[in-house]
Write a structure and sequence with these properties.
Blueprint (H helix, E strand, L loop, with lengths): L1 H20 L4 H18 L1 H4 L5 E6 L1 H7 L6 H10 L5 E4 L10 H11 L2 E7 L5 E2 L3 H6 L2 E4 L3 E2 L5 E5 L1 E4 L2 E4 L1 H10 L12 E3 L4 E3 L5 E3 L11 E3 H5 L12 E6 L7 E2 L13 H8 L5 E2 H13 L22 E3 L2 E3 L2 H15 L3 H11 L15
Parallel strand pairs: 1-13, 1-14, 2-3, 2-14, 3-5
Antiparallel strand pairs: 3-4, 6-7, 7-12, 8-9, 10-11, 15-16, 17-18
Length: 374
């Protein structure tokens, strides 16, 4: 009987491992991850308290009413940069990819500030959309604003490195931290599931993403309307020593994303489901997700997740499982061993992704010229 139960247990473990290999549990795993992340923030307040240096300057409905719908004249952003001169870094999540009148004025303001990060991204046809060369030359850094959605459409993490031609660039939030802390890549310690700097290592999951330790949903960071910055309602002293991210929060601009703490309203999401999943919070603006990336790294508040297993926040939890009236504390270990054997025999998709990610690691010196995309 004992041997029969053992065989049944092994067969069930193998079946579960095969189902996991096929992705049958992926959505359930992601839902559990979201639940635990929200529970963690509710129980441990340090996770929901962001770095006090980070603030958002919003291109919002108020500013659209005052200045008209974007795109705005380059002089508007030049004026904003002059008023944000006390900020340590200003990350402009705004596209300046087409030459326009006033490029020289904005370039002068970017260079004069000395701590401006500009964005780029790759469009659906694989073309890199980057600021005009004059602005790139003036900027202190340039970073990717692209996110990577999980199977259910939510953003939980970001790739840290992006290749453009022969050069490699960091994601937007990491580029902000690189400037703030003067990070220097540590190629010797960088490995399969971590990107290392001196003296910092950032863990990556099986997909090559850094999981974002969200401080919460929309409004987790202080937000000021750019209209109030420009009209003097918010004095420049407010931004002294701050890390300022400038970007749209206007729903009309459609830069809203599903996260563990929010869901973008569309035809696929029922309002009742939205209430259950996120407490009724609609999507998170992209600029706030970039702020979350920077916040995660600045606070070293990294979330670790093990491949092929449910999310485990900074610890491994053991438990007891009852079989036939007896308690076997080793049952979870047996399950894990069987699952591991199945993964060895049938290498899962995450291994291929991780290896591909590792193979794409930049060669020595690849970050030497990070502020220009030709």
């Amino acid at each position: 009987m004992r041997a029969r139960n053992l065989l049944i247990g092994i067969a069930l473990a193998a079946l579960v491992a095969l189902m996991e290999h096929a992705g049958a549990f992926r959505r359930a795993e992601l839902a559990l991850y979201d639940f635990e992340l929200r529970a963690r923030n509710a129980l441990v307040t340090s996770h929901s308290k962001p770095d006090g240096r980070i603030v958002i300057v919003a291109i919002d409905q108020k500013s659209a009413a005052a200045l008209g719908r974007p795109p705005w004249r380059r002089a508007v952003y030049a004026d904003a940069l002059r008023l944000l001169r006390g900020a340590d870094v200003v990350a402009l999540d705004v596209q300046f990819s087409e030459p326009a009148e006033g490029d020289d004025v904005l370039a002068d303001a970017v260079a004069a500030h000395g701590g401006v990060v500009l964005p780029f991204y790759e469009d659906e046809e694989g073309r890199v959309v980057a600021p005009v060369i004059a602005l790139q030359r003036a900027a202190a850094g340039i970073g990717s604003i692209q996110f990577r959605r999980d199977a259910d459409g939510r953003v939980r993490g970001v790739p840290l490195i992006f290749r453009v031609g022969d050069n490699y660039f960091f994601t937007f939030g990491l580029e902000v931290v690189r400037l703030i802390e003067g990070l220097e890549l540590d190629e010797e310690r960088t490995g399969l599931e971590r990107l290392c700097f001196k003296p910092l290592c950032i863990p990556e999951n099986e997909d090559g993403n850094m999981l974002i330790s969200f401080a919460g949903g929309p409004g987790a960071f202080p937000v000021f309307s750019i209209a109030d910055v420009l009209n003097g309602a918010v004095p420049p002293a407010v931004f002294e020593g701050k890390i300022v991210l400038v970007g749209t929060t206007d729903p009309a601009e459609q830069d809203y994303w599903d996260t563990p703490f929010s869901a973008a309203l569309d035809e696929d999401i029922e309002l009742d489901a939205l209430e259950v999943i996120t407490g009724g919070v609609a999507g998170t603006p992209g600029v706030e997700i970039h702020a979350g990336v920077a916040n995660t790294i600045l606070k070293r508040d990294f979330v670790r997740r093990f491949p092929g297993a449910l999310y485990v926040p900074r610890r491994i939890r053991l438990g007891k499982v009852r079989f036939g009236g007896r308690m076997y504390t080793a049952a979870l270990f047996a399950f894990g061993a069987a699952a591991a054997a199945a993964y060895v025999l049938l290498p899962p998709a995450w291994s291929a992704l991780a290896c591909a990610h590792h193979a794409a690691r930049p060669p020595s010196g690849a970050f030497a010229h990070m502020t220009r995309i030709s």
